Amino acid sequence: MSATASLKNTGLEGVSAGNTAICSVDQGALIYRGYEIHDLAENATFEEVAFLLLIGHKPSASELETFKSELVGARELPEPVIAYLTSMRHALDYRTAVPMDVLRTAVSMLGNLDKDSQDSSEEANLRKAKRLTAQIPTVIGHMQNVIDGRELVQPDASMGHAQNLLYMITREKPSDEEAHVIDVSLTLYAEHDYNASTFTSRVISATLSDMHGAVTGAIAALKGPLHGGANEAAMEMLKEIRGDIGPANDTEQIRTWMHRAFQDKRKLMGFGHRVYKNGDHRAGILHKLGHAVADKKGSDAAKLFELGEEVQRIMETEKAIFPNVDFPCGMTYNVMGIPVPQYTPIFVAARITGWAAHIMEQHANNRLIRPVSTYVGPELMKWNG
Ligand code: SDX
C-alpha cells in the first residue's frame, strides 16, 4: 500500500487548535464576542459588528461615529495599487487571473505601501485593520470597473460601508433594501472561529510575520471552492442545472440531475459543513432576505430561488446534507446583479474583520503554531547500502 494511502486524512476534524475570545461556532449557536448571530443580523450594522470584532466591545454612539468616519476617510487607494488594478484588464479578460487572485496581490501591495507595514504592535495592527477594512471594497469596485472597461468609480463618502461597496461594483446607488441585504451578508460572513482561512492567518502571524502577509495567505485559502469559493461555485452549479433542464423548474428533471450528480459522487457546492452537520445558522437568515429581493426582481429571479429550494429539498431529504451560508449567498448576490467572480471578494470584504481580530489576538498572546505529523514513509535505508 502506498505510504499516503494508509494515512487517514482527518483534516484536523474536531481538533481544538487553540483558544479564542472572538467567536464560538457549534451546532447550538454562532456567537461573536458574546452576541448571537441572529441578534447581530437583526439589530447591528456591519460597521458595529466590525468594531465589536476588532476592538472587542459593542461601540458607544460616539465610538461608532469616530470608527465610521475613520473607515470613510481610509477608502482611497495608493496610486501604484490603482495602476496595478488597471494593468490587470488583459489578465482578467483571459482569466489567467480571477478577481480573488488580483485582490490577493492588491492587498499584498497595500502592505508594501503601508507606513505601519513592519510594525506589529497592537496600535499599528489596529490601524492596519481599519485601513484594510476600508480599502478592500475600493479594490473590488475598481477591479469590476476595469473588467467592464469603464471609468473608475470613486468611493462615495455619503454612503455607509455596505452601500458604498455595492455602489462601486454596480455604479448605481443601491436601494435601501439592497444595501441592507449586503450589510447583513457582510455581518454573516465577518467571522467564523478557526475556519481554514482564519487558521491560515493565525499560523502566519504566529511566526510574528505581519498583518498584510497573514491576510494575503488567508485570501489564498479562502479562494478554494471547498471554502469561500463555494459561493461562486454554488451559483455556477445552479447555472449548469438551468442550462441542462431549461427555464421551467420541472421537479422530475431536477431530481434526475441531482441523482446523476450523486452517482458521479459530485461535491454539490454550497452544501455541507465541517462543523454544522444539521444546518448553518447563517443560511436561513440570508435565504429569507435574498428571496424577498428576488420576489421584487421578476420571474427569472423568483425562478432561481425556486430552483435552489428544490435542490436544497433533495439534498436535505435524500442526503441529510444542509446548505451552508454560501448557497443562499450565490442566489442572493445574483439577483442583486453582482457579477459571480466578485462573490468571494465580497466575502473577503467581510472576513477581513475576523481575520484581523484573530491576527491581533495571536500577536497579543503568541506561541509558534507547529504541530507534529505521523511518518508513514519508507523504513530507514543506507544511501550507499
Ligand atoms: C465555508 O469552516 C468554516 O467555518 C467555513 C465557512 C466560514 O464561514 O469560514 O463556514 C465557510 O467554507 C463553508 C463551506 C463551503 N464549501 C462548500 O460548500 C463545498 C462543498 N462542501 C463540501 O466539500 C464539504 O461539505 C466541506 C468541505 C464543506 C466539509 O467537508 P468535510 O467536513 O471534510 O466532510 P466530508 O467531505 O468528509 O463529507 C462527509 C460526507 C462525505 O460522504 P462519504 O465520502 O463519507 O460517503 O458527506 C459528503 C461527503 O461526500 N458530503 C457531500 C457534500 N458535503 C459532504 N456530498 C456532496 N456534496 C457536498 N457538498
Shape: globular
Cα separation of the termini: 24 Å
Q: What fraction, in percent, of the residue positions are helical?
A: 55-70%
CATH superfamily (homologous) name of the largest domain: Citrate Synthase, domain 1
What small ligands are held by the chains? Answer: s-citryldethia Coenzyme A
Beta-strand share of residues:
under 5%
Which blocks of ≥5 consecutive residues have pLDDT under 50?
A: none
Q: What is the name of the CATH architecture of the largest domain?
A: Orthogonal Bundle
What key attributes describe this structure?
385 residues, mainly alpha, Citrate Synthase, domain 1, Cytochrome p450-Terp, domain 2, 2 domains, 3-stranded antiparallel sheet, 17 helices, 2% strand, binds s-citryldethia Coenzyme A
